[in-house]
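Thread: zinc ion complex, take 2
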Amino acid sequence: MVPTTTCRVCRGTVTEFMDFGRQPLSDAFREPDDTGEEFFYRLAVGACPDCQMVQLMEEVPRERMFHEGYPYYSSGSTVMRAHFEATAEKLLAEHLTGPDPFVVELGCNDGVMLETVARAGVRHLGMEPSGAVSEVARSKGVRVRNAFFEKETALRVREEDGPADVVYAANTFCHIPYVDSVLEGIGELLAPDGVFVFEDPYFGDVSAKASFDQFYDEHFFLFTATSVRNMARRFGLDLVDVERLPTHGGELRYTLAKEGARTPSRAVSAILAEEEERDLTSPEALRSFGDRVRGNCESLTKELRSLRDQGRRVVGYGATAKSATVLNFCGIDAELLEFVCDTTPAKQGRLTPGSGVRVLGHEAFTASYPDYALLLAWNHAEEIMAKEVGFREAGGRWIQYVPDVRIE
Ligand code: SAM
Ligand code: TMP
Ligand code: ZN
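Output below.
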């Protein structure tokens, strides 16, 4: 029997196409002396044949993922800081030009985008349930409310601050299974000509690159233009623009507007046609995705075991949330990786979830270069390669696994 569940968007029947098995919370880095029981859930992915939405079969309660100690700080990457500064400038120039514009951001995190808006003196509000990251945003002059965005909280914002010209979300909307509440809330909050702009990893890129580690507890949905267009329609919203982004291994930025308020751009019809041609969620496409993923995983584990048997030093680079899927699905643990280095203080000194590899600061990497580094933060490859020329010069080599396993 093929496992099924109810589609979070259209209530159709989601068909499972990939089972990653028992997985921990991707951002639950543990203290080494923590003897408490670790939380696991079944990470499996399916697609809805009715609305095309790719989604997880099981949902992890949101409070387990997003809380006071949520350890992901968006400003940790120089490239992402520049990306969000440019994004803020674009929103200011294109959508926040009226007499007293107002923008609301879902998941503003440490204020990486809103700090530019705040500096421009434009009215804004960040909705951010995770405590520690939001304190950093506040310290930058960003106005933040510690709450999950959903219909109820959206209505309160509307009551207190009036309608929003822009609602923006980066790498956050795909984290939210309760889309009905969020989109109804956005419908209430937006001004008649307002827009909801959001960017998230693109399933078209995940499929092309077999980047299976884009699936983890926090990434509940993997969107396509087709599935977003179908979803938006159900809530009286039109997909009016779409833009491809190079961030996080390939993303799409979607612009939704109230039905009939704006004319969809040519980029929308172009990508919809492209997706129809690619048929990304056909049973054959999904089966071949699964085959590639299993093949890549096997080669990666084989390579790492062989290096261990040769007595080579191998470390992981970047204790990303997505690496939880790779490490736990491929069975990569402290036997195969000496440590994982990461610049985030909240992750250092802890163990990677499920796989139990020590997380050490960046200095552990440079102090004594290993022979090999498994690039777990592959979505930041350009930035990291540029920073780590010394590693290559010292004879070190990178192990990559997206789109294929290779050593360079
Ligand atoms: N926007 C930042 C970026 O692109 O780097 C942060 C992305 S981070 C992966 C996702 C953020 O969404 C977390 O800070 C989390 O606390 C927040 N979040 C999760 N559910 C939310 C909700 N319902 N409303 C607002 N923020 C939410
Ligand atoms: P992300 O892929 O979800 O953005 O997570 C990136 C992780 O990698 C985050 O924990 C910060 C870390 N990182 C480094 O350790 N060094 C770096 O140069 C970059 C860009 C990220
Ligand atoms: Zn559906």
